[in-house]
Structure formats: C-alpha cells, structure tokens
Fold this sequence. Notes:
Layout: E1 5-6, H1 13-23, E2 28-34, H2 39-53, E3 61-67, H3 72-82, E4 90-95, E5 98-104, H4 110-116
Parallel strand pairs: 1-3, 2-3
Antiparallel strand pairs: 2-4, 4-5
Amino acid sequence: MTQTRELTLPTDPEAALAALREASAEAHVVVFKKSPICPTSTRAEFEFKQWLKDVDDADPVRIAWIDVIAERPLARGLTSALDVAHQSPQALWFTGGDLAWHDSHGALTCARFTEANGG
Length: 119
C-alpha cells in the first residue's frame, strides 16, 4: 500500500496555498476538489482512488480533499490565488513548491494521474 497521507488545509486560501507549497517540497501533493452530489465528481474520485492503489511506496503522495460545496471559499479562493479557473471535479498537482499540473472533469483518469506522476 502507498505511503499516501492526507493533508488538512487551513480554511484561508492564502494560508492553504502556503501549506501546499511547503508540503510539496517533500512529496507530491494533489488537491482533489469534488462535489458530493455530482456524478462526474464521483467518477473522477473513483479514478483517482484507483490510481492511488498503484502508487509506488517509494513515491509518497499527500492528498488534500476539498468539498466544493462545504468549503466553497477555500475551493474558489485557492484556484483564484493560483490564477486557475475553478472547476469541479478538479485536481491540482503540486511538486517542488509549485503547481505542476491541473485538470478537471473527464481528464481525471488513472492514466492521466500516472502521467502527471512521471509514469
């Protein structure tokens, strides 16, 4: 099983971005934004969780989950701070302190996560 650890973000978008930059200096960090009532989010979350099962133990990944309904100010504020359009579902991939990749909806597949992870 992977060394995936969940990362809890501050509710303030600027503080969350600082935490993401800091955490991604040590490991890949993926922010997964989703709606609990959207079938597209459910499908994308399934793909993401399937990918997580195959992540190599030597390559830890930290995950921050954001519910775009319950955490609307964080979800929208984070993408605004990154100058990225808000989407749901959406993945924001941080590496080395920077946003390395982001995508949404049907592009969130096991194959795309593998590619983003350098595989």
